Amino acid sequence: MPVPLLTFKVIDKVYQNGTVALQGVNLIVQPGEFISLVGPSGCGKSTVLRLVAGLGTPTGGLMNWHGPNNQRNLAFVFQDPALMPWANVVENVYLPLKLKGQPLRSVRERIQAAINTVDLCGCEKSYPRQLSGGMKMRVSIARALVTTPQILLMDEPFGALDEMTRSRLNSDLLHLWEKKHWTVLFVTHNIYEAVYLSTRVIVMAAHPGRVVANIPIEAAYPRTDSFRTSSQFNYYCREIMAALSEVEGVGVS
Amino acid sequence: MGKQVSQVFDKRNSKTAWNWLAPALVGLVGVISWDIFVRLTNTPPYLLPGPGLVIKTLVEEWGDLFPSLLVTVQITLVAFLTAVVSGLLIAILFAQSKWVERSFFPYAVILQTTPIVAIAPLIIIWLQNNTFMALVVCAWIVAFFPIVSNTTLGLNSADHNLQNLFEIYGASRWQTLIHLRLPSALPYFLGGLRISGGLALIGAVVAEFVAGTGGTRSGIAYQILISSFNLEIPRMFAALAMTTVLGVAIFVGLTVLSDRLLQHWHESAIKREN
Ligand SMILES: Nc1ncnc2c1ncn2[C@@H]1O[C@H](COP(=O)(O)OP(=O)(O)OP(=O)(O)O)[C@@H](O)[C@H]1O
Ligand SMILES: [Mg+2]
């Protein structure tokens, strides 16, 4: 058993207004994993990511980082773009590097590379209000990619994008992940996306937020488009859907 | 193609022209009705002078009135700039901790709600050697609160997720202030500026009224006061008109500044195209 990067031991999170967002969540994240979290709205997916990022503390249980200060080395793509409206695309993408004290001159190429990855060439000087919702989201993704995170947290990053851009960014993300040995925690509503990307899919349920299934996707990388149409792919999708509908069934009865 | 472009251009030009023309037209109609009213009712000039007489007096008395206006401009400007700097610094101080804000904010409110007319005599007595300073202090008291309260609000309303982002990337307090909280506060600060500019003038005028000082360094309010004592009503109107124009100029100047600074990003300065 390799040394995990991060462990959640029976984590509870109760917000100040009494909402039980998470109850008894166990989670072990191995370095280099690509984990997707799926589940109905309000089941605490964003809460898990926020806890990992150190935004707020669990109200119960133990959260442990293993190895030296991993926590500083993470990047977060929020559910909404969270761009600075007074700054143009380049300045927004530059932000994490600026906060680390790196002069713009020395990182121009990295910024440009990140902007190219999300296909926003030509928009470098645009302000957020001049961009569409999907473009803003892509700026937000570029801002996360420009750092060299050990762990990348993404909260429905592709939800606002069209199917074409989404699948292109999916494969780009996989390439980067394979190349850079990131650990990714990825929230999505899209089961197909989760299966295509992940080494493991975690299914969550609401009221209270908890983990109900843990499904390793045992398919080799690099994953091609033919994987999307394989019977193996369908099998995993069905399994996740079954896990999701099982919880809903319990909720109804 | 070229024709299309020039058409678009003309349209935009005529639009901005209307922005000026429409209020000017309203003003003209107002002045004309005022003139007609005075002529028809035969109102004597010591009750209500007609616009022609006011303009004539303005031209005749310009040598007397304009230096006084400049004194008021000086008082207003010094008070306003002091209010901007002190208001900004105090707001930044307030934004450092909820406790600082809670402890000191009530006193800023007290300073604001105390009627300036009531405390002006006191300030003038305290600073009797320097009337100019006393007037500046009075105008400052009136002008600085909107800047403090608006900027404090702005500093505290930075986007929640952006604050989280800054925290994740390990931003220092100072970096968060410079790169997140101050830019977020800019629209609020500029809103405070616009209110405060007009208030500085009002504060200066009120304080001059209370001080009632003459001599070479007398402001425009003193001229209004003296004219009304001497029943030189047209002269009073002329001085009043100058004060009003000054107030409008301050407001327009600050609005232009605000639009310039916010043109790329803030809703208040953007033409909606949808
Ligand atoms: N700051 C907060 N204060 C109080 N309750 C909160 C807060 N943030 C989230 N919650 C509650 O916690 C629960 C989980 O929220 P969370 O945002 O983690 O859900 P989610 O799974 O990300 O949902 P979605 O898919 O809609 O984004 C919800 O019931 C929500 O109402
Ligand atoms: Mg969420």
TrEMBL record, chain A:
Stored InterPro entries: AAA+_ATPase (IPR003593), ABC_transporter-like_ATP-bd (IPR003439), ABC_transporter-like_CS (IPR017871), ABC_transporter_ATP-bind (IPR050166), P-loop_NTPase (IPR027417)
Keyword hit for NAD: no
Alphabetic keyword roster: ATP-binding, Nucleotide-binding, Transport
GO CC list: plasma membrane
One MF annotation (Gene Ontology) recorded for this entry: ATP binding
Location within or outside the cell: Cell inner membrane
PROSITE patterns: ABC_TRANSPORTER_1 (PS00211), ABC_TRANSPORTER_2 (PS50893)
Domain ABC transporter: 6-233
Membrane-topology annotation of the record: Peripheral membrane protein
Tagged with keyword Glycosyltransferase: no
Family: Belongs to the ABC transporter superfamily. Nitrate/nitrite/cyanate uptake transporter (NitT) (TC 3.A.1.16) family.
Record protein name field: ABC transporter ATP-binding protein
Species the sequence originates in: Leptothoe spongobia TAU-MAC 1115
From TrEMBL, chain B:
Pfam families: BPD_transp_1
Membrane topology listed for this record: Multi-pass membrane protein
Sequence ranges assigned to domain ABC transmembrane type-1 in this UniProt record: 69-258
Signal sequence, renumbered to the chain: none
InterPro entries linked to this entry: MetI-like (IPR000515), MetI-like_sf (IPR035906)
Keyword Transmembrane: yes
Subcellular location: Cell membrane
Keywords noted in UniProt: Cell membrane, Membrane, Transmembrane, Transmembrane helix, Transport
Single GO biological process annotation from the record: transmembrane transport
Top-level taxon: Bacteria
GO cellular component: plasma membrane
CDD domains for the chain: TM_PBP2 (cd06261)
Spans through the membrane: 20-40, 69-95, 107-126, 132-155, 185-207, 236-257
Alphabetized PROSITE patterns for the sequence: ABC_TM1
PANTHER family xref list: ABC TRANSPORTER PERMEASE PROTEIN (PTHR30151:SF41), ALKANE SULFONATE ABC TRANSPORTER-RELATED, MEMBRANE SUBUNIT (PTHR30151)
Assigned protein family: Belongs to the binding-protein-dependent transport system permease family.
The protein's name: ABC transporter permease
